[in-house]
Amino acid sequence: MTGDDEKKQMQLIGPAPAAVAKISDIYRTVLYIKHESKQFLIACKDRIEEMMKEMIKDNGQGEQMLQFDFDPVNLF
């Protein structure tokens, strides 16, 4: 499967506010990336982490936190 074919198989949902969007002045947003290949999801995670590091370095953004869940049970 080529890279373009894999992207066509991907489903992107969001970003959207989390079910509990703000806790103690911390705003939460969710983004779901669905794909049958765990390797593809890991590659997406790695690229997102790289982009966040670049954005923080280039723009002096405040502290950001990312969490990745490859097998979510609760969709919050």
Would you kindly provide a written description of the structure presented here, covering whatever features stand out?
This protein has 76 residues and is of the alpha+beta class. The chain has one domain. The chain is 38% helix and 29% strand. The chain contains two helices and two strands, in the order H-E-E-H. It has helices at residues 3-9, 38-59, and strands at 11-23, 26-34. The protein has a two-stranded antiparallel ribbon. It is globular, with a radius of gyration of 14 Å. The model has no long low-confidence stretch (mean pLDDT 82).
Uncertain residue ranges = none
Largest sheet: 2 strands, antiparallel
Mean pLDDT value: 82
Count of DSSP strands = 2
Give the quaternary arrangement of the chains.
Answer: single chain
Instruction: Tell me, briefly, the overall form.
Output: globular
Number of helices: 2
List keywords for this structure.
two-stranded antiparallel sheet, 38% helix, 2 strands, 2 helices, 76 residues, alpha+beta
